[in-house]
Structure formats: structure tokens, C-alpha cells
Design brief:
Helix content: 55-70%
Number of strands: 6
Distance between the termini: 36 Å
Order of helices and strands: HEEHEEHHHEEHHHHH
Shape: globular
Number of helices: 10
Structural class: alpha+beta
Radius of gyration: 17 Å
Strand order of the largest sheet: 1-2
Strand content: 5-15%
């Protein structure tokens, strides 16, 4: 699943923490879930192309996707959908990866006081396959397919391509921007990815602004 691959990419194996802050990670993961729902045919844009809605309620085998479909109580713009789906998405995806033996979740203390989580990758081969696939596309060794294109678009949305792939940040960001706007998927999925990517950017910016105002 796209959200599982993205979670693996966001884990920094040097310190077993996420490469981005929690809000950015959750927005990106919610975006990945949305893309999977669109790709599966369960969610699609309304005829006017402004809001996403459930068009096929057939149950899904993936627990995270199935639970997420239930949050669509009405049609939603991409940003609102990302904000609705991000609640507990990190915990749910991590638990799913742990059940599959890819990641081990450990409790830790932030600043020695606040409860937090560490994510230890236990299936290095699975993680390396995802990193290699994304790296080859970002560095221009091969073209993007639907999965790597979506992953790179989401990483670019939370400004973390350079945190996942080693290389010149400016060159990789330029390449990632081109990939995000590319024709590596069918028209319906491509339009959805573009809108969802924008929704992730907007949701992350809104959360940052709210945090700044609160502070």
C-alpha cells in the first residue's frame, strides 16, 4: 500500500524518528490513503471536479483504507479530506507495518517527559526496495510509474525529497516538481494526485500557521 511505503520512507534509520514533523507526516500519509482510495475506485471527484466523494462502498481488505472510507460522511475538497483522514493515520499505518513485521514501534520520551514513538525498521530489504525505486526516479535513472510518481509527489509536498534521497537538493526538488506534474498515471488518478498534493501542502501550511498563532 502507498501509505505503508511512504511511512517507511519517512523513517530515519539513524535515530528511528520521522524525517519530518508529525503534522507533515500525517498530512502526507493521509494524502497517500486518499490516492489509494481513488486508485481503487472507491473515491472520485464530483462531476464539477471540486470535491471528492465515495462512489463505491464495497469493503476494502486494507484496514486503514476501509476505516478511512467511513470518514467520508459527505463530499469534501482535497484539503478537508486530508485533514479528516490524518487523525491517527500515523499510528494506524505504523501498527499495520508492525503486524507485517516491517517496523517495530517502541515507546520513548520526548525531552524526557512527553510520550513519543520510535520506529525501528525490521525488514531492511523491504525498506531498501522502496528507497531504491524512489531514488532511481528522483535521480533521473528511470521514469516514474504510478506508485513512485505518487510517492515523490507526496514527499515533495512536505519538502522531504532530499531527506529520503542523497543528492543535490535543488536538482532533486526540480526533478520532483516535474514528476509531480508528469503523465505517469491515468488522467483520473493524475488529476486526483495533483489535487491531493495541493491539499497536503495547504493542510500543512494551515497547521503551521495555527501553531504559530497559538504560540
Amino acid at each position: 500500500m502507498l501509505h505503508e511505503d511512504l511511512m517507511v520512507l519517512l523513517i530515519n534509520q539513524d535515530d528511528n524518528k520521522l524525517r519530518v514533523d508529525g503534522t507533515a507526516a500525517e498530512n502526507a500519509l493521509a494524502g497517500a490513503v486518499l490516492i489509494e482510495l481513488v486508485s481503487s475506485g472507491r473515491v472520485a471527484f464530483e462531476p464539477n471536479g471540486k470535491k471528492l466523494q465515495v462512489v463505491d462502498p464495497t469493503p476494502l481488505k486494507d484496514p486503514v483504507l476501509q476505516e478511512s472510507v467511513g470518514r467520508f460522511d459527505k463530499p469534501m475538497k482535497p484539503q478537508r479530506a486530508v485533514e479528516r483522514l490524518r487523525k491517527k493515520v500515523r499510528e494506524n499505518v505504523a501498527a499495520q507495518l508492525e503486524a507485517r513485521g516491517v517496523v517495530r514501534v517502541e515507546a520513548r520520551k520526548v525531552l524526557g517527559i512527553f510520550p513519543g514513538r520510535s520506529y525501528v525498521i525490521t525488514d531492511e530489504r523491504a525498506a531498501e526496495r522502496v528507497r531504491k525505486a524512489v531514488g532511481e526516479v528522483v535521480l533521473g535513472y528511470r521514469g516514474a510509474d504510478e506508485r513512485t510518481g505518487a510517492l515523490i509527489a507526496l514527499l515533495y509536498a512536505v519538502k522531504s525529497v532530499h531527506k529520503v534521497v542523497d543528492g543535490n537538493r535543488r536538482d532533486m526538488d526540480k526533478r520532483a516538481k516535474e514528476i509531480a506534474a508528469g503523465n505517469w498515471a491515468g488522467e483520473a488518478v493524475r488529476r486526483a494526485v495533483e489535487a491531493i498534493q495541493a491539499g497536503v501542502v495547504a493542510a500543512t501550511a494551515a497547521a503551521a500557521a495555527a501553531s504559530s498563532n497559538y504560540g
